[in-house]
Amino acid sequence: MRTSIVLLALIWFMVDVDGAVLKRQQTGIERNAPCGNGIGTCAEGLCCSEWGWCGSTIDHCSGNCQPSFGTCYGQSPTPIAQANENCGPGKATCGGGLCCSQYGSCGPFDADPVRASYCGIGCQVGFGVCDSETPPTIRNLDQSCGNGIGSCGFGACCSANGECGYTSDHCADGCQSGFGNCNNPPATPIFTCSKPNGFLLTYDDGPAVLTDGLLDYLKSKNAKATFFMNGKNYKQYFSNGNLNTPFGILALASTVQRAANDGHQLCMHGFTHTDAITASERNFTYEITETTRVFAQALGRVPTCFRFPYGDFEDKHLRILGGMGITPILWDADPRDWENGDPQGGLTELQNTAPNPGSVSHIVLNHDVVNNTADFRPTRAVPKNLAELSVEYLQSKNFQFLTAADCVGDGQTPLYRNPTPNDLVCRPEGCFEN
After folding, report:
1. From CA 47, how far away is CA 58, in angstroms rounded?
2. Dist CA 234 CA 247 (whole Å)
3. Whole-prediction pTM value?
4. Burial of residue 110 (number of CB atoms within 10 Å: 0-12, 13-18, 19+)
5. pLDDT (tens digit, 9 = 90+) per residue, 119-171?
6. Residue 108: is the preceding peptide bond cis (ω within 30°)?
7. Do the beta carbons of residue 200 and residue 193 sit within 8 Å?
8. Which secondary structure element, helix H or strand E, spans residue 143, and what is its range?
9. Is 139 helix (H, G, I), strand (E, B) or coil?
10. Which residues on adjacent β-strands are paired with residue 364?
11. Taken in order 275, 279, 282, 286, is the CA torsion positive or negative?
């Protein structure tokens, strides 16, 4: 019996699964020595090239590298590279106290006097030693990013040129996926609310001098609305600054705070009411971040909902909002109060859109800077403005007053977040405060 066992073991040792006779296999074969079938396995950290030689260069560890007789790029254990050989993610780790440079090469080698080019800025921590072993930090909008620098945070992408941002230049071709997002999915615009039996009153372009009177009225009727606010009210721009009354989120911070405290949802409408189609992607990003910046100062939090000025947008703008975690809210009813100023005509549009509560809730576009919509001063020009006519009609039909928060996410959580560093960034020319 013992003789049979020894004989079987000897046969197994000499014959592989295909029946080919093998020589005794060596292990721990060093660099520049033969390896492979019938010879043996390379020492740990070395690759057996397709030509059967142990080493750690790209020729040894890529292509038809033989993983049965050593390691290979992308395999475990990671290959251990020498000076002037490739290193970094998916390749090798530098041995012998060498650094892995930002360009993926081990060094410095004996003839190279510039240690900083390998071990300084851009040195790849984790693939060799570095003069600074500090882990990469989170980088913010417009800051540099990449190997040895850090990763973009808060949904931003690291461009091929090593800059954090949300535009297609950052997130598309050449985007560095190891240091931030890439190809952010577009945000989904909302035109109606899937929650039934309700109606969304929305008011654009404030805060302004009429907003407090509108808030008084809505409170008296226990009606809720959504306000899409400009960081610096649009009237200041279309009047070339020739207004004596201050407008905008910081100038009317108490109005902004009151609207939020009264249970209305506040959303963004851009900083300067700029049409997204006419702006560069980078400037569109600043239209958002400068608005979140002033909201953070006035409210201590920033909205996660936005309405495009003029309702104009393209897919690239939705992708920017998607990366920033912001939901675009549009509308399906437009009484054009900014154009005709006729409250009764606006009511007719509302009645035609929503004759009765139904399976979806409609969203109406109004403006709290239009006198015939939101003026509650004794000197107003109409007996009843559009806000009054709308609320009375909706209550008579038993509509439920909804806000944007009822239509996004869980339908219960207000659409705000704590400000991130990216929410506080101004365009290079500086911050344009109220």
Report:
1. 9
2. 8
3. 0.70
4. exposed
5. 887 788 778 888 876 555 789 999 999 887 888 999 999 999 999 999 999 99
6. yes
7. yes
8. none
9. strand
10. 201, 333
11. negative
